[in-house]
Design brief:
With about 120 residues, the protein is an all-alpha fold. It has one domain (about 5-120): 23S rRNA-intervening sequence (de novo design (two linked rop proteins), Up-down Bundle). The protein contains 4 helices and no strands. The chain has helices spanning about 5-30, 35-60, 65-85, 95-120. Helix 1 packs antiparallel against helix 2 (about 35-60), helix 1 (about 5-30) packs antiparallel against helix 4 (about 95-120) and helix 3 (about 65-85) runs antiparallel to helix 4.
Length: about 120
């Protein structure tokens, strides 16, 4: 692995970690409805799983294992977008702005994982 590839790998590890932390901060600000509490739990799980699976991919024992972990990270990014779309903002424009930013980042991460997957197969 070249130094540039190694640097990109750790940048993406940091980026997915930051995203998971941003999601957690967002969930703390949500109205405490039953639906938001349950959807928030799922959102936290899927956003954290994205980065965890990317880290696992980087430690993969085989190319097949690497590709499978990247596919899971991509799946988790799609799931994160789903849970974000279900959250009730209660007409709070500040929360809606935060949700849109997180949706954009989840989409970008999904495209990155897709590109890694295509290049690895």
């Amino acid at each position: 692995m070249t130094e540039k590839e190694n640097s990109k790998r750790y940048d993406l590890e940091e980026r997915t970690h930051k995203f998971a932390r941003d999601v957690r901060a967002f969930v703390k600000e949500l109205p405490k409805t039953t639906a938001n509490i349950e959807d928030g739990k799922q959102l936290i799980r899927s956003s954290g799983s994205m980065g965890a699976n990317y880290i696992e991919a980087n430690e993969a024992l085989s190319k097949k294992d690497f590709v499978m972990r990247i596919k899971i990270a991509r799946k988790e990014s799609k799931e994160t977008k789903y849970w974000l779309s279900l959250i009730d903002m209660n007409n709070n424009s500040s929360l809606e702005k935060g949700r849109l930013r997180l949706l954009k980042e989840a989409g970008e991460l999904m495209m990155i994982f897709s590109a890694i997957m295509r290049k690895s197969q």
